Amino acid sequence: MDAHVPQCQEMGAMTKDAMKPPSGLTGAVLYAKDMARVAAFYEQVCGLTAAGGDKTHVALQAAGSLLVVHAIARAYAKDIVITQPPQRREDTPIKPVFGVPSLAAARAYAAALGGVLDPVAREWTYTRQGSARTMCDGHDPEGNVFQLWQAAGEVAEDRQRISSGSRFEADIGYSRAVVAGDWVFVSGTTGFDYAAMTISDDVTQQAAQCLRNIEAALQQAGSGLADVVRVHYLLPRTEDFEPCWPVLRAAFADVRPAATMLQAGLADPRMRIEIEVTALKRRAGHA
């Protein structure tokens, strides 16, 4: 029996060496029904960089790691139903973890792209080797759970506030628009001419003025109406919406952003329409 001990020890050493990970990238593969949407979600929320792909997968790269978003085979994907909002898969055995400069910015990106990063109240602090991190879970547009972390005490300086000069911004405490990275979030905007603080009685003229106010804010952010990806229309009277279509079509016919129309009372009875948009500034090299 003793004669076999050295051989067993040698085999054990070989096994340990064989299990050492190779140098270079490590990462994960995530299967998705809507590959393009899920890949865009992780690229923007986690600050990953596109690193190639084809019709079956998209590779996203961060420092030292790779996330591959792979399309689920059509034979299986057709039977998968993704609810809106998606059903969160808390029982997922594995969840990817990414470091981000700002959890606050990531939370805004996630909400705009169909996912969720849990609220601030559900964040926690984890200390490893003397370094503290603020952690938070979330889920992507298909319900896959992920985790983000930010170095405790660090605050990203990529937030820009834009004002239109309206007195309402100071009175209420908000900005006409907020820029966070490549995203521009424009507040609900009405048909006031903010320079003169006048407003037309005509709903179509109000809609046109709304868009001029929005465009001015987007231009200050280095963006424009062509970058709008989502728009919300709020009107007290649903019958006022159709007369506005030609004005809206002139602004967005070539853009075709995701859109929602809601009937809701507005803050001033003179206001007949309010428009809110989200824009994603186009990066060089991105279609």
Describe it for me?
- The chain has 287 residues and is an alpha+beta fold.
- Helix content is 27%, strand content 32%.
- The protein contains 7 helices and 17 strands.
- The strands form 4 sheets. It has a 6-stranded mixed beta sheet with strand order 10-11-12-17-15-16, with helices on both faces.
- Helix 6 runs parallel beside helix 7 (241-252).
- The longest helix is centred in the C-terminal third of the chain and has 18 residues, at 203-220.
- It is globular, with a radius of gyration of 25 Å.
CATH superfamily of the largest domain: 2,3-Dihydroxybiphenyl 1,2-Dioxygenase, domain 1
Classify the fold: give the CATH topology of the largest domain: 2,3-Dihydroxybiphenyl 1,2-Dioxygenase, domain 1
Unreliably modeled segments: 1-16
Over the alpha carbons, how many angstroms does the gyration radius reach? Answer: 25 Å
Number of strands: 17
The tally of helices reads 7
**Biggest beta sheet summary:** 6 strands, mixed
Kindly name the structural category. alpha+beta
